[in-house]
Design a protein that fits this description.
InterPro entries: LSM_dom_sf (IPR010920), MS_channel_1st (IPR049142), MS_channel_C (IPR049278), MscS_beta-dom_sf (IPR023408), MscS_channel_2nd (IPR006685), MscS_channel_C_sf (IPR011066), MscS_channel_TM-2 (IPR011014), YbiO_bact (IPR045276)
Helix content: 40-55%
Number of helices: 7
Number of domains: 3
Subcellular location: Cell membrane
Pfam family, one: MS_channel_2nd
Radius of gyration: 37 Å
Organism: Paenibacillus elgii
Keywords: Cell membrane, Membrane, Transmembrane, Transmembrane helix
């Protein structure tokens, strides 16, 4: 009995091996598999080409709009261009995945229906994701800020690198990239919409002739304005701002291009110091006066 079972098992195994060898040695199998692999490679290459062509077309469209007779907001055009590029990438990749699945004889009807059900479940469960997408849409629609703007969101301040429907990427001036979900953006300060104002306070000693010092400041800021491209109009010397214990503070204001006030203030401070040194104007420093009292001894 054991020998019969053994012979039967060997016979079944031999039949399985024979069928496997016949299946693997079938030329039609390898031919079909080769064609399938070639089709998948062609689909992948075609998707990459379509994405690259769409990106180039978007760039040319943005350039044509900038050079056209009707001028559009460059900030908004750049932001919308990046967003449209992202949407095209997502759509093309999704279609590519569906076409690759169809090469493996996968019925796409149930897949699409299942994706719809899963998307509906995610919509109810991931409310924060839906909130991020809706907020991102309104950020772009209302033009709250655009790519290239300098903004502050909470404790994060930097240049907007990318605005998506879900997250916004902000790069700080020290190099860190902050990825902020759009749904958490409650209040935004945009530093790139209007011109900025540089406020420079200059202190001189009480012994200085104020009219002479102000004349030097006026000449200095006029010369500086003629050579600086970051200022919108000539700086104004407002006059005496405060009078302290050891100094008189003069205030200067300069209207600059957006986010250029810090650089303008630094350069202007350097020019003022050079002008003061050349004209002998004293910059105040802490001084201490000591009184010596002498008392006569009683006789």
């Amino acid at each position: 009995m054991d020998e019969m079972l053994k012979e039967s098992g060997l016979s079944t195994w031999g039949q399985f091996q024979e069928k496997l060898i016949n299946y693997l040695s079938n030329p039609e199998l390898w031919t079909g598999l080769l064609f399938t692999v070639i089709k998948i490679i062609l689909i992948f290459i075609a998707a990459r080409v379509i994405i690259k062509v769409a990106e180039k077309a978007l760039q040319h469209m943005m350039m044509a709009r900038d050079k056209g007779p009707i001028k559009f907001d460059a900030r908004r055009s750049k932001t919308v261009g990046k967003l449209v590029g992202n949407i095209i990438t997502y759509v093309v990749n999704f279609i590519m995945i569906l076409m690759i699945l169809s090469q493996f004889q996968v019925n796409l009807g149930p897949v699409l229906a299942g994706a719809g059900v899963v998307g509906l479940a995610i919509g109810f469960g991931a409310q924060s994701l839906v909130k991020d997408v809706i907020t991102g849409f309104f950020i772009i629609f209302e033009d709250q800020f655009a790519v290239g703007d300098v903004i502050q969101v909470g404790n994060y301040k930097g240049t907007v690198e990318e605005i998506g429907l879900r997250v916004t990427r902000v790069k700080s001036w020290t190099g860190e990239v902050h990825i902020i979900p759009n749904g958490t953006i409650v209040q935004v300060t945009n530093f790139s919409v209007n011109n900025s104002l540089a406020v420079i306070d200059v202190s001189v000693s009480y012994e200085t002739d104020i009219d002479f010092a102000m004349k030097i400041l006026e000449d200095t800021v006029k010369t500086f304005y003629d050579t600086n491209v970051d200022m919108v109009k000539q700086p104004e010397v407002l006059g005496i701002h405060t009078m302290g214990a050891t100094e008189v503070t003069l205030r200067i204001t300069a209207e600059c291009k957006p986010n250029q006030q810090s650089g303008v203030a630094r350069k202007l401070n350097a020019e003022i110091k050079k002008a003061f040194e050349a004209n002998g104007v004293q910059i105040p420093y802490p001084r201490m006066i000591t009184y010596h009292r002498t008392e006569k001894a009683e006789s």
